[in-house]
Amino acid sequence: MNIILATHNKNKVIEIRNILNSYTVLTLDDLNDFDEVEETGKSFRENAFLKAEFYHKKYHLPVIADDSGLTVDALNGEPGIYSARYSKSGDPVENYKLLLENMKNIEDRRAHFNCTICYIDAIGSPHYFEGEIKGLINHDPLGKFGFGYDPIFYLPQKNKTFAELPSEEKNKISHRAIAIAKFIDYIKSI
């Protein structure tokens, strides 16, 4: 089965392809498609749907799109759906530096990564799969792997940040891995 992966984020492409290694995943780069879908939704679910719907209508093929982000309890859910564009520049390092600055006097470091996948099947029906992993915001960035907020997202059960975990290990436990596992279970059941 061919599935279009509706993202221009090269890090997400690598991560999702590694998790979906037995499926034929067509990326937007494979399709030479440089369209951008404006994320105007008010939730991860709405934004995932907007992206999946756009590319399904364009190519008439099954599409998966995700919207994901970091939610910090003490910051009323920030950065949330604005995770990728939290700072003025939208640069990943600037994003996590701003988050650390906003948390400098906050003791409650609880946070979670969320991922919502919208899969639109061949006939145009949307299906949703969600994943979440809880952790803490580290005081300083650590690690050389991963992307985005990974250097400051600390997992107490691993005693490491996401960026300290090799991709093979992260791809088994991440919010995205959890959502994709639910998607794979669904595909196998139909």
**Broad CATH class:** Alpha Beta
- The structural domain count equals 1
Strand arrangement, largest sheet?
2-1-3-4-5-6-7
Radius of gyration: 16 Å
Residue runs with pLDDT of under 50 for 5 or more positions: none
The separation of the N and C termini measures: 13 Å
Number of strands: 7
CATH topology: Maf protein
Q: Which structural category do the helix and sheet elements fall into?
A: alpha/beta
The biggest sheet, with number of strands, parallel, antiparallel or mixed sense and barrel status, is: 7 strands, mixed
**How much strand?**
15-25%
Calculate the mean pLDDT score and round it. 94
Element order: H for helix, E for strand: EHEHEHEEEEHH
Shape: globular
Counted by DSSP, the helix tally is 5
CATH architecture: Alpha-Beta Complex
Helix content: 25-40%
Give a quick rundown of the structure:
Helices cover 31% and strands 24% of the residues.
Describe this protein's structure:
The chain has a single domain, classed as Maf protein, CATH 3.90.950.10. The protein contains five helices and seven strands. The protein is an alpha/beta fold and 190 residues long. It starts with a strand and ends with a helix. β1, α1 and β2 form a beta-alpha-beta unit. The protein is globular and about 50 Å long. The relative contact order is 0.15. The model has no long low-confidence stretch (mean pLDDT 94).
